[in-house]
Structure formats: structure tokens, C-alpha cells
Write a structure and sequence with these properties.
With 745 residues, this protein is α+β, with helices and mostly antiparallel strands. It contains 23 helices and 23 strands.
Length: 745
């Protein structure tokens, strides 16, 4: 029967049920300095045959599984007292001979006789080793040996001294009843510790170090005895400052003031923690009972990483500041983990963990959210804003084995772009500073910033024009007098248009000359842009001998006619065909239409138009209504040395696509960098060229040389030639006038 003791009642959440949780509630009801052992009573049993000891979390789970009548459990606590006293207050000068320490046992269960089992023998041996370790003023070696000059105490002597100790410090009587006396008689009475060992004991730093060393010993002792550290008194431990340089020395808590030490080189080194901490650097997170985390957010982050790496969908059924519980969503899978923060520790520790997955890898893992995609691919989306969501979807499936929707990828991309744009706020207030910096670093350049004239009470940005001196000089010295004009929309949250002027270099590639950011594409903005461009390129005489290639932009035709009335104005054949194809979608008509656009002379144009009319008479009629004199090579003026029928501005707009997402300063900087790199790369390529003819031009020249093999030449005896190509085409060549009726030359 149960004799004496107090009775109390506690309510514990089933999700938080653990061995240390029960001990914590017990400490709220009973204040004791002794070591406690916990038992629980099986339903339908009595104290004599139904008590089961609680030793760890597994036994707590077994206790919950055995409950049939609700979750009301009868528990009993056995108090096993242990007290060690010393006559001398200085713990560094202990006299073993004068030590009156003894073991005091309080029986909480009447008539209960200790039973020696293999486990009890092992605990007795551990306890004896513990006592032998702490009775000595200095740490004993592995063989428990120390030398005082005369006598040597060995491990066998220590085991003989404590062979009478039973389970949890109970003294077991020998057959002659002298077991207790033999334990006292076997103490080493010849060893005397010097009383003045620590001469700096009064110093504050030494006192603090001794205090922390005592705390470490208390935790080590509690861990060894399987109890909480609060049940071990500091008076029961021999204070000893550990040598932290020795292998196997105790570690400090990471939150202690003395958790850092200084090496011989003067560098601070952090000591290791006693906690079983989570390793965030592991490729796949590994969890275990008692593992410590800094906070619930740190714990949840580790679980999300685990779910992504192992392709399992975890659901957080409990997500609070001090406790987190996660389960696997696959039906029938028993994997679960629970961690909580208690009043006994600042760490969040894993209390319950079942590491058994019975589910396959999941391709519908909901842990792959738009926020996670945005965080994982932030650099790629920021550097390449034109990254298509379809390609992003394929990349996510490859990296995370997860099928995500296009809308989720769109949200991830918008998150990244919004974050990038938020970091660029305030740029419009510094356009004048940026203008001055460009003029300082690029002398001779034309950098123009205009404000909105309709708003007088404050400065409001309106336009920004850029034409670098290097681009102007390069165009004037090596490019033909052909300029392509075009405008495109800005892609970001900032509304507006980007106007550009693009030339053709000696290799028949695009050469950026000038560009400007404007609020809208209209006659006023084009007139302002062409006026600045005319001054930079020295376009005089109303644009005589100059060629302008453009699309049908709003206001551009009128502005070009006013500023450059003598310039030849061509239209981009690619845009003309795009509009014509909307009505005539047959792909067989594409080649015949482009033959009309690239016909070198009017007879050939009429011939190809007749071929087109055979297939689609209405299409040929509609083609003639688009003013072919502006987009067909057969009607171009001679002397421009440029037979291009399309606009190079589309290539430029596509090249700066990512820059068009940014505000004005970031956009201008991105364009400047791209052009600078392009010029340098082309210069490096040109240094490796062999000959004086550029590669693209030389390639065309070889095609025409091969074509000349089908021509028959007749000379008139002076400077004229008759050239017959195949059987149905004849041309007249005049070397003096450097002309040919084919208009290819």
C-alpha cells in the first residue's frame, strides 16, 4: 500500500506529453532537493503489481497507449535523496580523511526492497564512477589514478570502495551485515589536498569561471543520472575549473558570457554547445529527439527544407510561437514531428518524432509556393526579366520534382520584379545628378533632361535624351548615311516609351546612335528627338543624301517631313508584310511577296507582282495600295549604298528587353553597359579579321561571284557591256558611270 506523501493534480496537453514535461509539472507541486523517480499505475492494477517506471519519452508514449478509460493517469514519485557535505567551505581544499559525506536514503514506498538486475548493476557502476570522479579535487585519468607522492590509488581501489552501493545509492548489506561499514572504512584517508591552491580565488573573474564550471558539472551529473539539472544542487558538486585546452573538456552553452575564448593568435573562437543542435549545412536535414532549434521559425524552415529535399508534402497542423507540429499529408503515412519551447530552456526542442515514411515522392508538393520559387530563382529572374514562365515551369519541375501551374510562376516572377523595382525608388529625383555624371565621364556627349512645362510649382521629369560622343564619332567615320527610327513601350511599372536611332556599320550590323525616354510617342516627342539627332549627326541641307527607315509611328512622318524634307523616307517591309499577312495567311504567298520587296528594278518588281497575282489577285491589289515606293528596293534612290528593306531597330529593342523593365536611371545604365560591351566585342572580333572586306559583306560577294558564272558578257568596244543572265534576262553595264540596269550595283 502507499504510505505517506502528498497528492496533487496536473493537466498536460497530449501533444506536449514527454518525460521532461511531466517532471516540470511535478516540480510545480513539490519542492525537493532530492532525486525523483516516476512511476505510473496500470489501469485495473494495484500498487503492488501495477507500477511501471517512467524513464524516457518512449515509456510516456507506452503509458498513453495503455490508457483505456480516458486519459486520467495515476502517477507516483519516489524520492531518492543524496547529500554530500564538507566541513571546509573552500571546495578547492577538501580533506578526504575528514570528509563526513554520506548517503541518505528516504523510502517513499514502504516494504519495497531494492532488486539488483543487470541494469541496476550498470547504474551502480556508473554512480560509483561518478562519485570517484568528483571526490578527487582534480580530474582523474581513464584508469582513476592519482599520486600524492607516497600512495597510488587505482581503479580497483575505487571499485572496492563502492562495491557495496546498490541501485540509486541504496546500501546493500552483505551476508554478514557489514556492507555499510566497509564502505566507510574503504575511503582513502591518506590523501590530503593543499588548502591554498587557488591564490586568485578572491578575484572576480576567477569566481565567475568557478561558477560556470560548477554549472557545467551539474548539467553533466544530471545528464548522467537521467534527471533534470534543477534537481542537482551546486553544493553536491566539487567545484573544479576545467582545462578547456584538453580533449574531452566540458563545453559551454552557446548563450553564456564565456562561450568565446581567445587563441594564441588573438582570434576569438566559439566553444561548442552541449545541445544537440540542428545542422543547417546538411544537404538533407536530419532530425532526432531532443534536437534543439533557435526558434519555431528556425524549426519550420528546417522542416520545409526537408520536405523539398525528400519530395514529401508536410502539413503544419500546429504552427505557433512556442510549438510546431508537422505531419505527412499522404493517407496512412505515420510520419510526424513535434517541437516545443518550455520554461526550462530557451531552445525549441523536438519532443515527439516518428521518422517512418510510407508514402512515395510527391509531385504535387504544396511546399513549392510562389514565394519559394521567387526566392530560389531571384538572381535569374532579376538578371533576365524576359524569362518566360513556361521555361520557368520546366525548371521548377526539374529542380523540385513538382508540377506547378503557370499562374504560380507568374506570381513568383511578379514578386521578384516588384522587389527589384522597390529597390529603385527615388531615381527620378536624381536624374539631374545622373546627367552631370554622364557629361563628366563622357565629354562631348549630348545628355538632355527636360521637365514637364505644364507643372510649375514643382519639378516633374518628362524626357531624357542620350547620345554619347563615342557613338557619334563612330557613326560619322564608318557608317553609311542610313538611320533607322523606332519606338517601343517600357515594360515595367513606369509608363512611357523609348525612342531610338540605329545605324548600320560596315559589317551590315546595327550600330546604336541615340535613344531617349519619353512619356508618349507622338509628333511633339518625335520632333524633339529628331531635332537633337539632326544636330548630333550634322544632317544639313534638309537631309539630302540621307535615308530614314521607320515604321508607321504616330507623328514621325510629319516630324521627319518638316525637319528633313530632302531625305529619303523608307518603310520597314517587315511591318508592311505583317499587316498584309493578317488577311492573306497562306504561307505559299510569303516568298512571292518578299520577291516583290527585294526586286532590284521595276521590271523585276512587275514580274514578281504578276506571279503573286496568279495566286491571289486581291492580295496583289492590296499590296500595291501600301505604297511600294517606300518599302520595295526597286523604287529606292541610288547612291545610299544600302539596299536594306527592314528596320534594324527591332533588333535593338529586343536586345535591351530586360533594361526596359527598370526606372529611368537603371534603364539608361543598363543600355550604356550593353552598348559599351558590344562595341568592345566587335572591336576585338575585327582585330582577328583577315582582309579589308567585312565577313558579312564578303559572304554576299562570294554568292554574287558564283552567280556570275551563269552570265554571258558582250563588249561594245568602249565602256559598255551587255550581260545576259540565264536566258530571259539581259542588263546593260556602264563602267564609266558605274551603273547597271539590274540596280544591284
Amino acid at each position: 500500500m502507499y504510505v505517506g506523501g502528498d497528492i496533487a493534480e496536473s493537466w498536460i496537453d497530449v501533444d506536449k506529453m514527454s518525460y521532461f514535461e511531466i517532471k516540470g509539472h511535478l516540480a510545480d507541486h513539490f519542492k525537493t532537493d532530492s532525486i525523483l523517480r516516476l512511476y505510473w499505475l496500470k489501469p485495473g492494477k494495484n500498487i503492488g503489481d501495477g507500477l511501471v517506471m517512467l524513464t524516457d519519452d518512449a515509456s510516456c508514449q507506452f503509458m498513453l497507449d495503455e490508457q483505456r478509460d480516458g486519459l486520467l493517469v495515476d502517477m507516483y514519485a519516489e524520492e531518492v535523496g543524496m547529500q554530500m557535505t564538507a566541513d571546509d567551505e573552500d571546495i578547492w581544499a577538501r580533506d578526504d580523511e575528514a570528509d563526513d559525506g554520506h548517503i541518505q536514503v528516504d523510502e517513499a514506498l514502504a516494504g519495497k526492497t531494492p532488486v539488483i538486475s543487470p541494469t541496476s548493476k550498470l547504474q551502480s557502476k556508473d554512480y560509483a564512477s561518478f562519485c570517484a570522479f568528483y571526490r578527487s579535487p582534480a580530474k582523474l585519468s581513464q584508469e582513476y589514478m592519482y599520486n600524492d607522492g607516497e600512495d597510488v590509488v587505482t581503479k580497483n581501489d575505487v571499485e572496492d570502495d563502492y562495491k557495496g552501493l546498490g541501485v540509486d545509492g541504496n546500501v546493500l548489506a552483505d551476508s554478514d551485515g557489514s556492507g555499510a561499514d566497509s564502505a566507510d572504512d574503504s575511503l582513502d584517508s591518506d590523501y590530503v589536498q593543499a588548502s591554498d591552491v587557488d591564490s586568485s580565488a578572491e578575484e572576480e573573474e576567477a569566481a565567475e569561471m568557478r561558477k560556470f564550471a560548477s554549472e557545467i558539472k551539474r548539467k553533466n551529473k544530471a545528464k548522467k543520472l537521467g534527471v533534470h539539472g534543477s534537481q542537482i544542487r551546486l553544493e553536491d558538486i566539487v567545484a573544479e575549473v576545467p582545462d578547456l585546452e584538453e580533449p574531452g573538456s566540458p563545453y559551454q552553452e552557446s548563450s553564456d558570457d564565456y562561450s568565446y575564448d581567445e587563441t594564441s593568435d588573438g582570434e576569438s573562437v566559439r566553444w561548442k554547445s552541449m545541445e544537440n543542435r540542428y545542422d543547417s549545412k546538411a544537404p538533407i536535414p536530419v532530425f532526432d529527439l531532443g534536437m534543439a532549434f533557435r526558434s519555431s521559425r528556425h524549426f519550420k524552415k528546417a522542416l520545409v527544407k526537408y520536405g523539398l529535399k525528400t519530395h514529401h508534402h508536410l502539413k503544419f497542423v500546429k504552427d505557433e510561437e512556442k510549438k510546431v507540429r508537422a505531419v505527412c499529408t499522404w493517407p496512412g503515412c505515420k510520419w510526424l514531428i513535434y517541437g516545443s519551447i518550455t520554461s526550462r530552456s530557451e531552445w525549441l526542442k523536438v519532443v515527439t518524432f516518428d521518422d517512418v515514411h510510407t508514402c512515395p515522392p510527391r509531385r504535387n508538393n504544396k511546399l513549392v509556393t510562389s514565394t519559394l520559387i521567387a526566392k530560389h530563382y531571384y538572381q535569374e529572374i532579376r538578371d533576365n526579366p524576359t524569362w518566360k514562365v513556361g521555361q520557368m515551369q520546366i525548371r521548377v519541375q526539374k529542380d523540385f520534382l513538382s508540377d506547378v501551374s503557370l499562374s504560380k510562376c507568374k506570381r513568383a516572377k511578379s514578386i521578384v520584379m516588384q522587389k527589384v523595382l522597390d529597390g529603385m525608388k527615388g531615381e527620378y529625383s536624381r536624374v539631374n545628378d545622373y546627367q552631370l555624371e554622364l557629361l563628366r565621364t563622357n565629354p562631348g556627349s549630348t545628355i538632355v533632361v527636360t521637365l514637364d512645362p505644364e507643372i510649375e510649382d514643382r519639378k516633374v521629369f518628362e524626357r531624357f535624351y542620350v547620345c554619347f560622343d563615342a557613338c557619334k564619332k563612330g557613326f560619322m567615320s564608318g557608317c553609311r548615311k542610313v538611320v533607322g527610327l523606332d519606338g517601343c513601350w517600357l515594360k515595367g511599372s513606369h509608363n512611357g516609351n523609348l525612342l531610338c536611332a540605329i545605324g548600320r556599320d560596315a559589317n551590315n550590323q546595327m550600330y546604336p546612335v541615340a535613344w531617349a525616354a519619353v512619356p508618349i510617342e507622338c509628333y511633339d516627342t518625335w520632333y524633339w528627338f529628331l531635332g537633337l539627332l539632326q544636330k548630333d549627326l550634322n544632317i544639313n541641307n534638309g537631309g539630302d543624301d540621307w535615308v530614314i527607315i521607320s515604321d508607321q509611328q504616330k507623328g514621325l512622318l510629319k516630324a521627319a517631313a518638316e525637319l528633313m524634307p530632302n531625305a529619303e523616307h523608307r518603310m520597314c517591309a517587315r511591318h508592311i508584310y505583317a499587316n498584309w499577312r493578317k488577311k492573306y495567311t497562306n504561307k505559299k504567298l510569303q516568298k512571292k511577296w518578299w520577291r516583290c520587296a527585294k526586286a532590284s528594278c521595276r521590271p523585276l518588281f512587275n514580274l514578281y507582282r504578276a506571279y503573286l497575282a496568279q495566286d491571289t489577285p486581291d492580295g496583289a491589289k492590296d499590296m500595291m495600295s501600301t505604297s511600294p515606293e517606300h518599302w520595295s528596293r526597286a523604287f529606292f534612290r541610288l547612291g545610299s549604298n544600302c539596299d536594306s528593306v527592314d528596320n534594324m531597330c527591332e533588333s535593338f529593342n529586343n536586345n535591351i528587353m530586360d533594361a526596359r523593365f527598370y526606372p529611368v536611371i537603371s534603364m539608361m545604365e543598363a543600355i550604356r553597359k550593353k552598348i559599351m560591351v558590344r562595341i568592345q566585342e566587335n572591336r576585338t572580333k575585327a582585330e582577328r579579321w583577315i582582309g579589308t572586306v567585312c565577313p558579312n559583306i564578303f559572304r554576299k560577294l562570294k554568292v554574287n561571284i558564283a552567280r556570275s558564272g551563269c552570265c554571258i558578257v558582250l563588249w561594245n568596244g568602249a565602256d559598255g557591256f551587255e550581260v545576259q543572265e540565264k536566258e530571259d534576262r539581259k542588263y546593260v553595264v556602264n563602267l564609266q558611270q558605274r551603273s547597271c540596269t539590274c540596280r544591284y550595283w
